Amino acid sequence: MKPRLHRALDEAAATLRELLDYRRQINDQLVATGNRCELAGRILRERLEILRALLATELEQTDALINTHIHEDDSLRTKAARLRELQGAGPVLAATLLAYVPELGKIESGQLAALIGVAPFAQDSGRRHRCQHVRGGRHSVRARSSTWRRSLPSDVTLSCARSIGASLRLGN
Asked: What is the extent of the structural domain holding 157?
């Protein structure tokens, strides 16, 4: 068994990764506070609304820090501009790919799709041809940026959303 080669991150990508981790933590806290507001009494709800406003401000400031960091580094700025040209790729997805996929631009598209977790894998055996499923990939990219959802056609995403909504309404 050969060990996998590992490249050390450059300083700009490491800083970007730290900022994105912090952004994710703030976003998680914002969602949790919003969920708690729904069940809170009047007095606690007022305090939670203040906390939500504070977290929303911090999230905006962190997004500005991320954008500033990307625009100050020539390499990150160039790659981010190329990523933003893709349909459905926003600033968060571009920053996530830059921070967590240092192989970007150095490997082929099929390998990159598998690494991110959006490549379909066949489950064929003999004459049996089953549906292809998307699986695997680097968890930090797939879970945090929802790249798998952006890679689906809109009608597939819509039908998945409808079936999930229907099952929630039925109480399944």
From this structure: 106-172
